[in-house]
Amino acid sequence: MNYQFIRDLQGSPVAEFDMGSETFSHWFTHELGADQNKIKMLLDVIQQLQNRETKAFLMEGNEFHLSLDPDEVEIRSKILDVDAPDELPEGTQLYDQESMAGCGLEDFTRVLRSWSDFVCEK
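^ that's the sequence the OP posted. Answer follows.
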């Protein structure tokens, strides 16, 4: 998973992830932001998952769900929870590439720690 963190013109932190992981860009930038309390809570949950003290965790955001288990992380847009019309033409597939992404828990932990360090910089 390739990414970079930058600051916008107002100095706010922005996460940019490569194609296929765009959902992480939005989640880190808008759902998590610079909230150190959320970041610490997530790091605590990750520790619990790694120690097998808990089996899964779900964080509901404004636009996305974050789900964690001891192996994987998935970010999924709430838009995908809406039922698709029953009468879609045969062969039609809904585009969801920018609405969900996943990675391993270890990779996510590294990115989360890097994000935490980045948003603390001024």
